[in-house]
Design goal:
With 162 residues, the protein is α+β, with helices and mostly antiparallel strands. It contains six helices and five strands, in the order ββαβββααααα. A five-stranded mixed β-sheet has the order 2-1-5-3-4. A hairpin with a 2-residue loop joins strand 3 and strand 4. Helix 3 crosses helix 6 and helix 4 packs parallel to helix 6. The longest helix has 14 residues. The chain starts with a strand and ends in an 8-residue tail after the last helix. The structure holds FE2/S2 (inorganic) cluster (2 copies). One FE2/S2 (inorganic) cluster binds next to loops.
């Protein structure tokens, strides 16, 4: 019987209390007991970015982050961005730029895009591409993903919505 630990955190704006095994990752918690399957399992080793979530505004790989480490913190998953009017411009930019093919990497790309929009560490294409280095895509060749984030950054709405 694994050791359980009760944690409390805010997920996509809602407070959650949950008892989790101390070895459970945030990705396992999201896709398991919380039934939020938008965050994807790719490599499980912190290499592909398919599991990217925001934790207190930082983009982190949920597959190598323990759920107990999120006690008292604020997590945003792709489901939170899907419902967030402030991310509407970013979501639309992905569609308009044709940045989605099979879609497996897309949740992580959109979450990382939101992080880049929020932090604005660089708005030129090279900076956006550097910001996506931790997110792998087997389909798009990345150009259209960079197009999408550049489009969202340049839009009068910015990261905002309609
Ligand atoms: S599944 Fe987490 S980085 Fe690949
Ligand atoms: S769209 Fe298929 S892996 Fe990125």
């Amino acid at each position: 019987m694994p050791l359980l630990h009760e944690i409390g955190f805010v997920l996509n704006g809602s407070p959650i209390r949950l008892s989790v095994p101390v070895t459970m990752t945030v990705l396992e918690m999201l896709r398991g007991p919380l039934n939020l399957t938008g965050t994807k399992y790719g490599c499980g080793e912190g290499e592909c970015g398919a599991c990217t979530v925001l934790v207190d505004g930082l983009s982190l790989n949920a597959c190598i982050l323990l759920a107990v480490e999120c006690d008292g913190r604020e997590i945003t998953s792709i489901e939170g961005l899907a419902a967030d009017p402030a991310a509407a411009g970013l979501r639309r930019a992905f569609v308009e730029a044709g940045a989605v093919q099979c879609g497996f990497c897309t949740p992580g790309m959109v979450v990382q895009g939101k992080y880049l929009l929020d932090t604005r560490t660089g708005t030129d294409r090279a900076a956006i591409a550097r910001g996506l280095e931790g997110n792998l895509c087997r389909c798009t060749g990345y150009r259209k993903v960079v197009d999408a984030i550049e489009r969202a950054m340049g839009s009068t709405e910015g990261a905002g919505g309609d």
